[in-house]
Specification:
This is NYN domain-containing protein. Pfam families: NYN. It comes from Dysosmobacter segnis. InterPro entries: NYN (IPR021139). GO terms for molecular function: RNA nuclease activity. This protein has 291 residues and is of the alpha/beta class. The protein folds into two domains: 155 residues, Rossmann fold (3-Layer(aba) Sandwich); 119 residues, no CATH class. Helix content is 49%, strand content 18%. It is built from 15 helices and eight strands. The strands form two sheets. Strands 3-2-1-4-5-6 form a six-stranded parallel β-sheet, sandwiched between helices. Strands 7-8 form a two-stranded antiparallel ribbon. Helix 13 packs antiparallel against helix 15. The protein is elongated.
């Protein structure tokens, strides 16, 4: 994409058909948090002499994985405006985006360029109208599922991958992972101390965590599983088998607590799982979200 004159940034407003993007990324088993999309979008714009003045996303946030993880609030913490489209159909989201873009264009002369993030060719009339009003418009597409005709009606075409190739020094997903790690360590330490007093230990069950922790950590279940996988791949946690009554369960704990848990008789060496395939859990959770 051609850059503007060096030293003269242009003001950009970004409007995102977020449900379209969210579902396209689910197909690829990833999400905007994992990609650090909003952090990288701002960095990309800065590097290309653009100043982001507004980002608005449109989505039905009642989708179960988004609703349970308070995803709308998470996006707002990025400084992103969110528009809940409810269950009023795809055409409603397109119509709302069109109305809001046109309203911004006619009421705000400080917006030099519009970024429309969508794979949908239904956006082409909007693109034509923006250009007819002497404003630049760029289309951001996701993956390979976009309709090529949408790009023909824009001044420029940016692929999501180009934005995600940008390096950033800070990712919010890293903050979430660090906070969750501290929570995990605190929980296990408290349970070990409690065991010394009461002889009881409440295991940290993987399935329970992936169902109930998402509302506290504010990440989707598949992303929380990906965070846990990162701990496992880095050698920071281990998985083990145990029984809750007669029910077989899988628990996990920091690797630094393994010897302590075994020496106190909370688990046995034979309970430790040599290799746990948490990627299967991640794949299953993404598949569930796509249903």
């Amino acid at each position: 994409m051609e850059d503007k004159q060096i030293g003269v940034p242009t003001n950009v407003a970004v409007f995102i058909d977020y449900e379209n993007v969210y579902k396209a990324l689910l197909e690829e088993k990833t999400n905007v948090l994992r990609l650090a999309f909003f952090e990288k979008l701002r960095k990309w714009c800065s590097e290309h002499q653009r100043r982001v003045v507004r980002i608005v996303v449109y989505c039905n946030f009642d989708n179960m994985d988004l609703h349970e993880s308070f995803h709308q609030s998470v996006l707002q913490s990025y400084g992103v405006e969110t528009v809940h489209t409810s269950n009023q159909g795809k055409n409603y989201a397109d119509l709302k985006i069109t109305i809001d873009v046109l309203s911004s264009m006619y009421s705000n002369n400080n917006i030099d360029e519009f970024f429309i993030m969508s794979n949908d060719k239904d956006m082409t009339p909007l693109l034509n109208t923006i250009r007819a009003n002497k404003r630049n418009v760029a289309v951001i597409t996701t993956g390979s599922t976009y309709n090529p005709s949408i790009c023909e009606f824009a001044d420029s075409h940016i692929e999501l991958e180009e934005i995600c190739d940008v390096e950033v020094t800070h990712k919010i997903i890293d903050d979430i992972a660090n906070a969750y790690w501290n929570k995990l360590e605190s929980y296990i330490n408290a349970q070990i101390s409690n065991f010394g007093v009461t002889g009881k230990y409440a295991h940290y069950e993987l399935k329970y965590v992936l169902t109930n922790e998402i509302r506290y950590s504010k990440v989707m279940s598949y992303e929380l599983a990906t965070i846990i996988k990162g701990f496992y791949d880095d050698g920071n946690i281990f998985f083990y088998n145990y029984k809750y009554g007669t029910k077989p369960c899988v628990g996990f704990a920091p690797i630094s607590k393994k010897a302590d848990l075994i020496s106190k008789g909370i688990i046995k060496e034979a309970d430790v799982i040599a290799t746990y395939d948490i990627q299967k859990d991640i794949d299953d959770l993404y598949a569930k979200a796509l249903r």
